[in-house]
Amino acid sequence: MYPYQYDPRFQNLFPPGGGGQGFPSFPPGGGQGFPSFPPGGGQGFPSFPPGGGQGFPPQGGAQPPSSPPPAFTPAPKLGSGGPSLYAVDPGAISGCLYRYTYIWPRNGRPYWFYPTFVGRRSVAGYRWTGSFWVYAGVDVNQIREFQCI
């Protein structure tokens, strides 16, 4: 049904049956799981995603790579591994579109990424979990260094 794998880390983002923090439950009465919308949205609401397609990104969007990233880990070019005073330029990372890209974030562990969209302040694409690709986005200010293959 969906072109990507289920990630159990995101299963408890919303409490079942209640909206919490001042939000009403949805559907009214707090149904279990996710509500199903009829094509066209029904009851005056537009369909989602636009066009009624299934999955995310919307139909016709870029698909994840059909194979895992390379088995090797590139070496950072900054060398020291310490903090960088320079911000990553979205124009520079746009040269990595649709290419395996290794990301060294400012905080956290480095990871393989397959960018499919570059905006003014963010990059979206597929992040390798070690087992499968997951659609994700990252703020370019959170990238310390990157290298595309």
Structural account:
With 149 residues, the chain is an all-beta fold. It is 3% helix and 22% strand. The chain is built from one helix and five strands, in the order αβββββ. It has one helix at 90-93, and strands at 101-105, 111-118, 122-128, 133-139, 143-148. The chain has a five-stranded antiparallel β-sheet with strand order 4-3-2-1-5. A hairpin with a 3-residue loop joins strand 2 (111-118) and strand 3 (122-128).
Q: Low-confidence parts lasting 5 or more residues at pLDDT below 50?
A: 44-55
Side by side, the strands of the main sheet go: 4-3-2-1-5
What profile does the largest beta sheet have? 5 strands, antiparallel
Discrete helix count? 1
Shape: globular
What structural class do the secondary elements suggest?
Answer: mainly beta
Could you give the distance between the termini?
A: 31 Å
Order of helices and strands: HEEEEE
- The fraction of residues in strands falls at 15-25%
Question: How do the strands and helices of this protein lay out in sequence?
Answer:
Blueprint lengths: L89 H4 L7 E5 L5 E8 L3 E7 L4 E7 L3 E6 L1
Antiparallel strand pairs: 1-2, 1-5, 2-3, 3-4
Structural key phrases:
5 strands; 1 helix; mainly beta; 149 residues
